[in-house]
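Hello,

I think I submitted the zinc ion job twice by accident. Can you confirm which output corresponds to this input? Input:
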Amino acid sequence: MIRDEFREIAQRALRLHQGVESLEVGAVRPSPVGPIVEWQALLLSPGRQRRPLPGGGHVLGAPSGPDLLAVLTRFMACRWRAGPPHAPSTWADDLASAHPKIFPFAPASHAGWSWLWQAGAEMIEERGIPKGFRTVDTKEKFGSLRWYYEAKGDDRHADNVISCIDHISNFVCEYCGAPGALRKSSWVKCLCDQHAQGKKAFREGEA
Ligand SMILES: [Zn+2]
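Support: Only one job matched these inputs. Its output is below.
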């Protein structure tokens, strides 16, 4: 299950990345931070996604594939850390209490993205929180997560982690955290098939 989720989100999130077809998903290994999905992608370009322009040349798109997979791996570890995914109704306040320097207030989204905020906070803390780092706003916009912050120190790692989180949120159901896709009606929402088809009650944080 965890491997299937990993593979599905990875294939969607990296579909325009060069060499993604070489992605192989291996075993799931227990670790202190939760179950780690092992993967390798020998041909995956280490650089950011390059989107060709019609007149020639290219623009830089999504963050690097290996970086995205590292953040996705941590998202999965957070999501499956305590067994089958379940986000308590207090998840946002819990995150603010556990990571007060990262979240001076509770992050604002539905529960499916709780593990994205958590993965981001943990990865930023592990490398050292940049001097003066302060989250200034968190929200959902056009179906994806937005995380705005300020920092005075070297924020390259934090910036990259947050860019990866933003990108991955386009492929994670905002209600339950299962693999999702953007659905457009009067609103743009990122939903799994079950939530999109209304087959599942909009219970928060349960896969
Ligand atoms: Zn869902």
